[in-house]
Amino acid sequence: MICSKTSTPEDLQSGKLSEQLNKLVKKASTQLTPGESLTSRALQLGTTALLSRVLQNVDVSDVDVEKIGGQLRTFATSLLHPTDESNGHSNGKSNGHTNGKSAKPFSIIQGDLENYLLFSPPWKLNRETVKQEFRDVIYDAAANPRLIRQELEQIDRDYFVQELSLRNDFTPEARQDLASYLEEIRTEVFSTVQTAEEQGKRQDLRNRVENYLRSTRKAKLNPEAISQDFKTLLEDSEADLDTLGERLGQFDRSTLENILSQRDDISGEEASQIVNQLEGNRDQVLSQAKELQDRIQAQGKELHQKLSDYLRNTNKEELNPEGIQGEIKILFEDPEAGLIALRKWLSQFDRDTLVQLLSQRQDLSEEQVNEVLDQIESVRNNILHAPSTLADKAKEQYEQTI
């Protein structure tokens, strides 16, 4: 049996894992029933949970997590699409992709979470026990709060329902109730890590501003240089207006003057003039953030109308993966809107909202509706989790238009 509790890092990193997985592919592929509704999902979850269990029994520092996770995902893909093995393609699907979706990197939190939801005995998944244990599954106070926050953003109540639907020891009512309770705990943890992340950013900015005012040569503390350097120091394309306002609120006139007063080469009058420039740039950063937020609110209403019109009026034949990916990407990726601010609005565009927009159509089956929704959510999620470099580019494009 592969990946048992006796597995060593060497076993996992060597060719033994691939060899044994390939044997399982050949054996299990003959046992699958075509059209099994939960086979694909169960197998995907199984590989993730399996890797999570393996990592509990070996030194993670000795293991290439991504490599092993990739081998397990390849195993799942081969099992579901055995014809892919020979050429890496099947019906236009390339290795590592399914239905046009890129394979996600292995997530430690999701692995632990799936392990917990799939393998915990039903008597442990009651409210009292879950309240004690579930928080520990998804939260580690010693871990980087930004990383936890990013992973928890990809989990919601629907995710819990999907995981629990793979079990046959819960009634639909019990499954829905437990999913709601898990989401309550996830929301609490998400708020906790958001607060911790912001506290870290606030302190980091404080340190950098103090270092800037204490260490920058006097000659460089002129209006032109301050406008370039200090303003860049304060800006954060990932922060909304309220967060940025609270973060910059710590730099009032008294605080700035106090930092500069520790320098022997700057007089009180010179410090006052420098602080005038610092305050002006601080206020300009907040003013531009507010302009961007106002623009996004207006753009959000327009985007909602455009998306509604597209889903209701587009011909059925044009609602194919390529067409959806192209059209929806154009709607969502409006550089004038500002990518990061747009994320906040897009996060509210959940599956239920999309279902409502498609509910008036009578020419789509339930399967076709789900395919359309999957494509739209894929584009939306790519934007929600886009790298910050793309956000900066969008912000730059926006500023060029004003």
Structure characterization notes:
With 402 residues, the chain is mainly α. Helices cover 68% and strands 2% of the residues. The chain is built from 19 helices and four strands. It has helices at residues 9-13, 16-28, 39-55, 65-80, 84-87, 108-119, 127-138, 145-152, 157-164, 172-215, 223-234, 241-248, 253-260, 268-313, 321-332, 339-346, 351-358, 366-384, 388-400, and strands at 89-90, 93-94, 97-98, 101-102. A two-stranded antiparallel ribbon has the order 1-2. Helix 7 packs parallel to helix 10 and helix 14 (268-313) crosses helix 16 (339-346). The chain starts with 8 loop residues before the first helix and ends with a helix.
Features:
single chain; 402 residues; mainly alpha; 4 strands
Layout of strands and helices, then pairs:
Layout: H1 9-13, H2 16-28, H3 39-55, H4 65-80, H5 84-87, E1 89-90, E2 93-94, E3 97-98, E4 101-102, H6 108-119, H7 127-138, H8 145-152, H9 157-164, H10 172-215, H11 223-234, H12 241-248, H13 253-260, H14 268-313, H15 321-332, H16 339-346, H17 351-358, H18 366-384, H19 388-400
Antiparallel strand pairs: 1-2, 3-4
Compute the number of helices.
19
Question: Would you report the number of β strands?
Answer: 4
**What is the 3D form?**
flat
Order of helices and strands: HHHHHEEEEHHHHHHHHHHHHHH
Number of domains: 4
What's the pLDDT, averaged over the residues? Answer: 74
| Unreliably modeled segments | 1-6, 31-45, 55-63, 83-103, 387-395
